[in-house]
Amino acid sequence: MLQEIYAETKEHMDKSIESLRRDYKTLRTGKVNTTILDGVKINYYGTPTDLNQVGSVLAADATTIVINPWEKNLLGDIEQAINAANVGVSPNNDGDVIKLFFPPMTVEQRQESAKGAKVMTDNAKVAIRNIRKHSNDKVKSLHKDKEITDDESKKAQDEIQKITDSYVSKADETLKAKEQEILTV
Q: For the chain, what is the domain count?
């Protein structure tokens, strides 16, 4: 019974860490990442379609993304969708491909991006603590229903706290790594 609660707690906390890593991908670091265009939808014959489904999206270098549509008649639609998505740069259409030139990040932009990462990490920690509370409530419910003893309840809550502490430190480690990536020129 308690082992199931521990396993469920770890599973949910793993998902929180995965979600945090996904959130980090939306942040701009020193080099461009094609995930900045993940939310961009193209009107493809009446159907909203992801940009990466209508052409190749590649990071040519640290500051350039190249979009090569499979059908050249989509260039205008792609350009409009990128403008509407407001990714921070204007698309350059040369008739064959669309290029996005991102200027190098300033120190202030890097610091803002690092602050955004910290906010995301704090949100993940809140989620982890909510999972801890939920798991502790399950243990207390088992204790109240006399399915476990006082000692077992105390040990279970201590174990849940140890699990929580390990996941909070994982979140802090991912933040440190992300801040390092963002602030490195």
A: 2
If asked whether residues 21 and 111 sit together in one domain, one would say yes
Pairing status of strand 64-69 against strand 91-93: unpaired
| Residues 91 and 44 grouped into a single domain | yes
Per DSSP, the three-state class of 41 is strand
Cα 2 from chain centre: 31
Residue-wise pLDDT for 12-39, tens only, equals 999 999 999 988 887 877 778 888 888 8
Residue 96: which of 77, 73, 63 has the closest Cα?
73
> Do 113 and 178 sit in the same domain of this protein?
yes
pLDDT digits (tens, 9 = 90+) for 146-179: 999 999 999 999 999 999 999 999 999 999 999 9
- H/E stretch holding 64 reads strand 64-69
96 and 123 inside one domain: no
Domain span including residue 49: 34-101
39-96 pLDDT per residue, tens:
888 888 888 888 889 999 998 888 899 999 999 888 888 998 888 887 778 899 988 9
CA distance 152 to 55: 57
